[in-house]
Structure formats: C-alpha cells, structure tokens
Design brief:
This protein is mainly alpha-helical and about 130 residues long. The chain is about 50% helix and about 10% strand. β3 and β4 form a beta hairpin.
Length: about 130
C-alpha cells in the first residue's frame, strides 16, 4: 500500500492523502479518482482548488505518472476536474453538481452491465436503495 500527503505550497494545491490498495479489484487510477471525488464530497478538497501536479502526485505515491494522468483524465471526463494547460488541473466549480451525478449514474450503469443485470432490475434495486435511506 502507498500512503501519502502532499501540498504544493508554492501553488496552493489541494492536500491529498491517498492509499493505493493492490488487493482491490479497481486499478490504481480508479482508486485515485474515487479518492479525490470522496475528498471533494467530504470538503477536504474544495471546488476551484488546484490538484497536485501529475509529477508531484506520482512521486509522492510511487504511482506511475501515466496512472495519475489517467485518474485526472477520468475526473476531467466526468466534469469533476478541469485541465488548464500549464496552470494545472483544478477541481471544477460545479464538481458536486450535475457532472458528478452523471458520473455516478454512469458508474452504476457500467457495474450493472458487468453483473449481467437487466436495466429494469437495476431500476428496482436503485428504487429500493433510495427507499431504504428514507
């Protein structure tokens, strides 16, 4: 497992504590993507905040730079982060709005397909999950 905390004070980057777990079925880039999203939800990473550079995060975690770049690309595709060229990658100001909901829905749909369930059954399960939450 890799554990790290980093802050790029010169550029006021977000602090990201990350632990990659090779025992999990998800590849490291997906683990990192999920961790950043959870940090945004928890308020430890704020909308508009700059994420650490790919190189800094890769060096701190021991992950390959391509792995970190893949996580950042996935966050950008989901509308959670936005790349600003040389300025870096920043958390989208609307990270917890519609783009995040769409990304969650797509993740759910992808998992349902992997499990071989019919969309109708997925809707039932989702409805039951919402009812259980009250």
């Amino acid at each position: 497992m890799t554990d790290f905390a980093t802050r790029d004070d010169a550029h006021h980057s977000a602090v990201i504590d990350f632990r990659s777990d090779p025992a999990l079925p998800d590849p490291p880039y997906q683990q990192l993507r999920a961790h950043v999203l959870n940090g945004i939800r928890a308020g430890s990473i704020l909308p508009g905040e700059r994420l650490p550079t790919v190189r800094a995060l890769a060096a701190a975690t021991g992950l390959a730079a391509n792995t970190v770049a893949s996580a950042y690309r996935a966050l950008e595709e989901d509308g959670i982060a936005e790349g600003r060229g040389r300025a870096g990658t920043f958390v989208s100001l609307d990270a917890l709005g519609e783009p995040a909901a769409r990304a969650a829905a797509q993740g759910f749909a992808d998992r349902i397909i992997e499990l071989g369930l019919a969309p109708e059954r997925a809707h039932e399960l989702l409805r039951d999950a919402f009812r259980a939450r009250g």
